[in-house]
Amino acid sequence: MRVYNETLALRVAERLIHIQDVEEKEMFSGLVFMVNGKMCIGVSKNSMMVRLDPNTLENLSHKDGWQQMVMGSRPMKGYVSVSEDVLGRNDELDFWVNLALAFNPFAKASKKK
């Protein structure tokens, strides 16, 4: 049984179809889209994780339905969670996907084990 929003995952996948190096991995109770070997976007049950430039957070105050991700009690720099409530509109989904893709070339890859 999948625990992530399959409809949202398909909509994200459609937006990444033109990119050469995309890999889908089931992790963190969801589906993560790796772009160029780096975590880029994740889809969970009722939200989407977006990896973006941490310096852009103050520019997002006008956007609804997002919050900085927290692991334990520490804010995760450069990761936000966007509620599926605002992602029903294609223009909103496009905005967040494009933000993640714009940052991807500058994102650090995880260390290979």
UniProtKB/TrEMBL annotation:
<feature type="domain" description="TfoX N-terminal">
    <location>
        <begin position="16"/>
        <end position="103"/>
    </location>
</feature>
<dbReference type="InterPro" id="IPR007076">
    <property type="entry name" value="TfoX_N"/>
</dbReference>
<dbReference type="Pfam" id="PF04993">
    <property type="entry name" value="TfoX_N"/>
</dbReference>
<protein>
    <submittedName>
        <fullName>TfoX family protein</fullName>
    </submittedName>
</protein>
